[in-house]
Design a protein that fits this description.
The complex is a heterotrimer of chains A (475), B (100) and C (474). Chain B is mainly α and 100 residues long. Chain B has a domain of 52 residues. In chain B, 36% of the residues lie in helices and 7% in strands. In chain C, α3 links the parallel β2 and β3. The N and C termini of chain C lie close together (11 Å).
């Protein structure tokens, strides 16, 4: 009996705005507790929400990127539940008319495009953070009211790899559109993962288990793997009944999921329209303006790189995987660097360096302009490609300009014909037996001579010229 | 045809709202809920409502504009914010340990 | 009255200090009999302005947030709550130079129509202390009717300004929804709540709302009313205006229990209609479906309770209000709410919660909201033909305090029509039945406040109860 996993995701991501979604308090990270708070955030009697236009705009932008249907009017609803992280004891969210429904987006999984359908996208407010101590908790409301966008997929994902690919893709879109920093390290992204198993042929979905509040993509992956294992074992040992509709949480320490509550005692959130927020009419003109602001998204950029610049699908994929990398590449093009050359340098040297040091591409000293400096010397023949690589690392480590480094360290290529001829003639004069071997058909000896030339010139000989001269001498 | 409300039922409802009620209060609630339920029977006979949307706002306020994101307020004075809280520690509100 | 006081202040016939001192003294002396105040402010804040309200005392319903002044909503859940910010309406009053001398009691958090369920105890009617004031703006109505302050701020969710105004023989004006910002008004039912005023004349009502109205960046449901100037609109010209009344409410034969007071109130109402006609106003009778009229109260109860239970879930004693006892946070919140709320509020909350439950929304909340829609559609249609709806503000004068059952199932709450559609609605005194004042109410189409006030203004002159306060003083 082959089992198939069916996954649905709910991805929460904090939007990048100056102020909170319903108050004028700053939306910013602050170590000082309760320093970004106004009366509304603490739900003092008589306070009212006022919707932030930028938050709505960014929510709409995401809905457009995910090809959602956007309603003519938006409505905000209340989700009622008693919990100290929501001072009003209801969260303002969207249920009746969210910013987007019925979206669809293709995601690349192992070089194949996989369609993922979006159930809905809704804008809501983030909750306060609770710090737990031995026998009490402290509440910091700085995060309460930060605009939070929740993207809910249909149960349409069939592997943990696809789930993570989708999340990475979404994070990319957030960054490409500047809707969010989408930084998991800052806790800006949190996911709820729904996992169920069914028999391959079955039409009905299996019993759904929800794993709540998973805060990194690697944990999403691990949680899915764990749930597949747990549920498979239960099914295979005839304990299918023990898979119940429930909410679990991911425990990072043990690498397992732990039961939070059964759905039987689940809360009725008593959703209803928030009368404090009038219906928001979405003018088509505004939507057009928002659409016009959306830059090329990862897969569109990739297609362009392949088509216009003749890059391989693999290289183009590497370039667009991270917005900063893609931006770096495009900046190189703007500076006139040949696309292929830029791509080669970025995908091999630069990516190797940033991955090794676990830093971002826009954090390195080697800006596209400095890369252009290296390439100018290389293409003029002033330096060899080997020297170019040396220069590359020198710039990164010494944090100095290419021009200065070249002068300081005398990095240049030996281009003088006469000098080269002399050196080569000298080497040939001392290696008559090798010349004989070469002439007898042992062409490999050619590389031996090149090696000798490089050794003699401390690697500075222009390899192209050296080859030419050597060939003519060996004729 | 109406659902018959019981004291236990309304006590449980109140409990979900974090409210404790006495037997007497439960009885009154049952009485008024029954009145409301009966009234809904009458309402269901009003044919004209069938094709209407529920009205959530007294009238449409479409002209309302959204708040621009440029203007912000500095965080309010922490003494003001916490002056009505009975249990605080430093800049924060203290509560018994909350378990997820 | 306000204009008169203003002139006297300008001419230095009186001083603001004297006015304020007198109001505070009257307020203190009235407490034992009327119990209208939660707080009397002995050294009130003063801000000079050239507005008509400058230097004149005012009382504020205790469900409006006043900076540095206890604001309890007459609920034990907020018995020590001192806000650090002013409601927008209060800010505007202060900027107009109004001097707040006290906070008035209300039916807890605005719920209830009797004046009997404030945390500080029942409020008594200045005309007769055995009678109720009506509610929920009970303290504000009593303070104005007793001549303590010339005007008081109230709030109206179902009829909370207009009923106590009728029972206390004063003017009660609920402007169009959103004309005055709700920011700082403790929410009861947000889609119905309106800040308004109790005065002794229509002119005063116009003066006060002119000062506190306006679009507010802190209330999305507020709207721009710059083009409306209520005071300037009062010209008394009402010839050829058209009013209608609802047959089923105003026909004595339609009532089974015809008490003497009901009969007289209805008779008085028809007398008032004659006076309207004498002013050149056309008055028509319009028949309503009785079922629809009967559904107003349960519909109102359903909608208001649903909104209230959610609105007031912020009252948990964690961030403000007395911390409850208990070992867990839920126990603490439950203790706070169990002890802090009166039975009536708890009842409303449970009803509200019941109708909000997923499985009940369609049958209860949506059905009620559809009835609301139907009524609003009908009214809007009638307002294309008529300037306003005229009705007895209440079908009886203030009942006895002892005559109120613990559950006062009011089958008549037709003034809630005004809140369903957000309409401007004003009650003015129109006579007496059994030595107690009664009132009539005029309701008009949204944002047509100036027209409605002007009709009330003309009728007020005809009826002759302008500037009336209790104990026969005029």
């Amino acid at each position: 009996m082959a089992l198939k996993v069916v996954i649905g995701l709910e991805m929460h991501c904090e939007l990048k705005t100056k102020t909170k979604v319903f108050s004028k308090s700053l939306n910013s990270y602050n170590d000082i507790p309760n320093s970004c708070i106004t009366a509304i955030d603490l739900a003092f009697p008589g306070t009212l929400p006022v919707v932030n236009k930028e938050a709505v705009k960014k929510a709409l932008k995401m809905a457009i990127c995910l090809n959602c249907e956007i309603p003519e009017v938006l409505i905000f609803d209340r989700k009622n539940y008693y919990y100290p992280d929501v001072p009003k004891n209801y969260q303002i969210t969207q249920n009746t008319k969210p910013v987007g429904i019925n979206g669809k987006i293709d995601v690349e999984v192992n070089d194949q495009l996989v369609p993922i359908t979006i159930h809905d996208i809704h804008l809501e407010e983030d909750t306060a953070s609770l710090d737990h101590y031995f026998d009490y908790s402290l509440i910091d409301y700085n995060r309460a009211g930060v605009p939070l966008l929740e993207i809910v997929t249909d149960p349409c994902i069939y592997s943990p790899e696809a789930a993570v690919a989708f999340l990475e893709h979404l994070r990319n879109i957030y960054k490409y559109t500047d809707c969010s920093e989408a930084d998991t390290k800052k806790g800006q992204i949190r996911c709820d993962v729904n996992v169920s198993l069914k028999e391959e042929e079955a039409k009905e979905l299996g019993t759904k288990v929800e794993v709540k509040n998973v805060n990194s993509f690697s944990n999403v992956y691990a949680a899915i793997i764990y749930e597949i294992k747990r549920q498979t074992e239960l099914i295979e040992s005839g304990k299918k009944d023990e898979i119940i509709q429930e909410t679990r949480r991911w425990d990072e320490e043990s690498g397992t999921t732990i039961r939070m509550r059964e759905k039987v005692e689940s809360i009725d959130y008593k959703y209803y329209v928030d009368p404090n927020i009038p219906k928001i009419k979405i003018e088509s003109k505004w939507l057009e303006e928002i659409k016009a602001e959306i830059p090329l998204l990862p897969l569109e950029r990739k297609a362009k790189y392949i088509e216009d610049y003749n890059l391989s699908s693999y290289d183009a994929g590497v370039l667009v995987k991270n917005k900063e990398v893609s931006d770096y590449f495009e900046e190189c093009l703007r500076l006139g660097i040949n696309p292929k050359e830029a791509s080669n340098w970025i995908t091999s040297q630069i990516m190797g360096y940033i991955n090794k040091h676990d830093i971002e591409i826009n954090e390195i000293f080697l800006t596209p302009k400095r890369l252009l400096g290296i390439l100018n010397y290389l293409n003029k023949g002033t330096i060899s490609s080997k020297q170019a690589k040396e220069l590359f690392f020198m710039i990164l480590e010494k944090q100095e300009e290419p021009d200065i480094l070249i002068k300081k360290h005398g990095i240049e290529q030996l281009n003088n014909d006469d000098e080269l001829i002399n050196i080569i003639q000298n080497i040939l004069d001392n290696n008559q037996s090798q010349i004989d071997e070469y002439k007898a058909g042992k062409t490999k000896v050619f590389d031996y001579f090149i090696g000798q030339i490089m050794k003699e010139t401390k690697g500075k000989a222009n390899p192209v010229k050296a080859k030419e001269i050597l060939l003519s001498k060996l004729k | 045809m109406n659902h018959k409300f019981t004291n236990e039922e309304v006590t449980k409802l109140a409990d979900k709202l974090l409210i404790g009620i006495s037997e007497e209060e439960a009885k009154d609630i049952v009485e008024e809920l029954t009145f409301v339920a009966d009234s809904m029977n009458v309402i269901s006979e009003i044919k004209e409502i069938e094709n209407l949307e529920p009205l959530t706002y007294p009238f449409n306020l479409y002209e309302t504009s959204l708040r621009e994101d440029d203007d912000y307020e500095e965080g309010h004075n922490i003494e003001d914010l916490l002056s009505n809280a009975d249990c605080i520690q430093g800049r924060e509100i203290e509560v018994p340990k909350v378990v997820g | 009255m306000i204009k008169n006081l203003h002139e006297k202040l300008i001419n230095k016939e009186i001083t603001s200090e004297d006015l304020i001192k007198e109001a505070i003294l009257k307020a203190e002396n009235s407490q034992k009999e009327l119990n209208a105040f939660v707080t009397i402010i002995n050294d009130p804040e003063k801000q000079e302005s050239d507005s008509l309200l400058s230097g004149i005392p005012v009382a504020i319903k205790d469900n409006l947030s006043t900076k540095g002044i206890l604001s309890t909503g007459s609920s034990n859940t907020l018995k020590d709550y001192i806000p650090y910010f002013d409601a927008t309406a209060i800010k505007k009053l202060k900027a107009s130079g109004a001097v707040i001398i006290g906070k008035t009691a209300l039916d807890e958090l605005g719920m209830g129509g009797t004046g009997l369920i404030a945390a500080t105890g029942p409020v008594k009617n200045p005309w007769n202390q055995n009678k109720i004031t009506g509610g929920s703006s009970s303290g504000s109505a009593a303070a104005v009717a007793a001549g303590i302050v010339p005007y008081a701020i109230g709030s109206d969710t179902g009829d909370s300004i207009r009923i106590p105004a009728a029972h206390c023989g004063v003017v009660g004006y609920k402007p169009t929804y959103g004309m005055v910002s709700r920011f700082g008004l403790f929410a009861f039912a947000s889609s119905l709540d309106t800040v308004g005023v109790l005065t002794t004349s229509v002119e005063d009502a116009a003066i006060v709302i002119d000062q506190i109205k306006g679009q507010d960046e802190y209330d999305m449901t507020s709207w721009n009313s710059k083009d409306i100037n209520l005071l300037e609109s009062l010209n008394g010209k009402v010839k050829d205006k058209k009013l209608f009344y609802i047959k089923e409410i105003c026909d004595i034969n339609n009532y089974q229990d015809q008490t003497n007071e009901l009969v007289k109130t209805i008779e008085e109402f028809h007398q008032t209609l004659k006076k309207c006609q004498e002013l050149g106003i056309e008055v028509d009778e319009v028949s309503f479906d009785q079922k629809l009229l009967d559904s107003i109260y349960p519909t109102y109860l359903t909608i208001a309770s649903a909104e209230a239970t959610s609105n007031m879930s912020n009252l948990t004693g964690i961030i403000f209000g007395p911390r409850g006892k208990g070992n867990t946070i839920d126990e603490m919140m439950k203790d706070h709410r169990t002890k802090g709320f009166s039975s009536l509020i708890k009842r409303r909350f449970v009803i509200g919660s019941y109708v909000l439950q997923k499985e009940n929304q369609e049958r209860y909340l949506f059905a009620s909201a559809k009835v609301r829609h139907l009524i609003v559609n009908k009214m809007n249609e009638l307002f294309t033909k008529y300037d306003g709806l005229i009705l007895p503000a209440s079908c009886e004068p203030a009942p006895n305090v002892n005559g109120i059952k613990s559950i006062h199932l009011r089958t008549e709450q037709y003034l809630a029509i005004g809140n369903f559609g957000g309409y401007p609605s004003i009650t003015i005194p129109s006579g007496f039945v059994s030595d107690m004042p009664i009132g009539i109410n005029i309701t008009g189409k949204i944002k047509d406040d100036a027209n409605i006030l002007n009709i009330a203004y003309a009728l007020e002159q005809k009826l002759g109860y302008k500037n009336q306060i209790a104990k026969g003083e005029k």
